[in-house]
Amino acid sequence: MATTKVLAGARVVLPSGVVDDGRLVVEGTRIAGPAPESAEIIDVSGHWLVPGFVDIHNHGGGGASFSGTVDDVLTALRTHREHGTTTLVASTVTDDMDILVQQAGLLSELAEQGDIAGIHFEGPFISPCRKGAHSEALLRDPDPAEVRKLIDAARGRAAMVTLATELPGGLDSVRLLVEHGVIAAIGHTDATYEQTVQAIDAGATVATHLFNAMPQLGHRAPGPVAALLEDERVTVELIDDGVHLHPAALRLAFRQAGATRVAFITDAMDAAGIGDGRYMLGPLEVEVRQGVARLVEGGSIAGSTLTLDRAFRRAVTVDGLAVEDVVTAVSAGPAKLLGVYDRVGSLEPGKDADLVLLDDDFRLKGVMRRGQWVVDPQLG
Ligand SMILES: [Zn+2]
Fold first, then answer.
1. Which of 78-87, 255-264, 275-284 has the lowest mean pLDDT?
2. DSSP H or E segment with residue 183
3. 379 Cα to the center of ligand 1, angstroms
4. Most Cβ neighbours (<10 Å): which of 96, 165, 321, 336?
5. Which CATH superfamily groups domain 4-50+345-375?
6. For the chain, where do the domains classified as CATH 3.20.20.140 start and end?
7. Which letter does DSSP use for residue 330 in this model?
């Protein structure tokens, strides 16, 4: 039986550009160089072959959340894999510190096993003025000692912490995170332009869902949006679901930052991959109607029901972005940010065989993770 597969005939998106009628060789769990003669040839002509997606901000899907049990986490993970996300950072939401510490322990084990790529703590160190769908009573200032508790609880698997860096202890917390190799993300913030510049200078490198949960861009008070967009050191997260951002705002950010400084994220909650209904986001109740998640109390947007295959398709077909740029923003860029680009994020020999097959209308038609089909190719 052939253990080597050759995916032949697709438009393959490589770091060097798009190759028409390309061939991709998969041997075991990895992408390989030239194929042996015994290889199984799979004709995927008429399709796009792109690297598996990398989501650095995701709270759940498939009716389950990354704040739940091991089974919940695996359900959410499976749901997003079926939509092309082969590398995923699990995000928590604001909760009691003891609960977060406990959840960090659970998630760190799944990271250890290679199921998730790390943990993102969104809250509790965020601004009550920009709390979004976070429980106000549980918010707190970013005291470095408390931040340290979460880093320790994650046992080396903390990937990112979102914080409002203008709060007391904010800048010291950024420095602490950087010292421990954890990404400091500015978000749910009420900072001015100047305060945001200070936080970037202290080492913050990510904007948590740029535009959302922060002051608007103003021409006399440019706020965090301008500071985050203009600094070459910052990667900006964008939620391309047609709800969180107008296409023009998304294009503006994309063009200003350039594809290499954008990370498309889902910020998905439990309803992703399922549909409308009542759900929980951490301790808060959420109602999803026509795919839009809002808090039952107050009506704040409460995450998204997005999956990255939909974000990809929308970016190309609605926002008019180039396929190669979208691949950069949904795979290569976030992989580099996480420090895992040596293994994932592009279709190159030696890397994990993580890939997504799309038809010529950019609909998902197959997903492979580490050489195994998660979604069998549908080549009709
Ligand atoms: Zn979030």
1. 275-284
2. strand 183-186
3. 35
4. 165
5. Urease, subunit C, domain 1 (2.30.40.10)
6. 53-338
7. I
117-121, 145-149, 167-171, 270-274: least confident range? 270-274
Q: What is the pTM of this model?
A: 0.97
The average pLDDT across 249-259 equals: 97
Tell me how long the chain is: 380
d(CA 278, ligand 1 centre) in Å? 18
- Assess whether pLDDT exceeds 80 at residue 380: no
b/e 171-182 (16+ beta carbons within 10 angstroms → b): bbbbebbeeeeb
Torsion of CA 159, 162, 168, 174, to 10 degrees: 40
Could you tell me the two tokens for 34? 């030239």
Q: Report, as an integer, the average pLDDT of 362-371.
A: 98
267 is known as an active-site residue: yes
Residue ranges of the chain assigned to CATH 2.30.40.10: 4-50+345-375
Pair of tokens at residue 28 = 């075991």
Could you tell me the fold of the domain covering 53-338?
Answer: TIM Barrel (3.20.20)
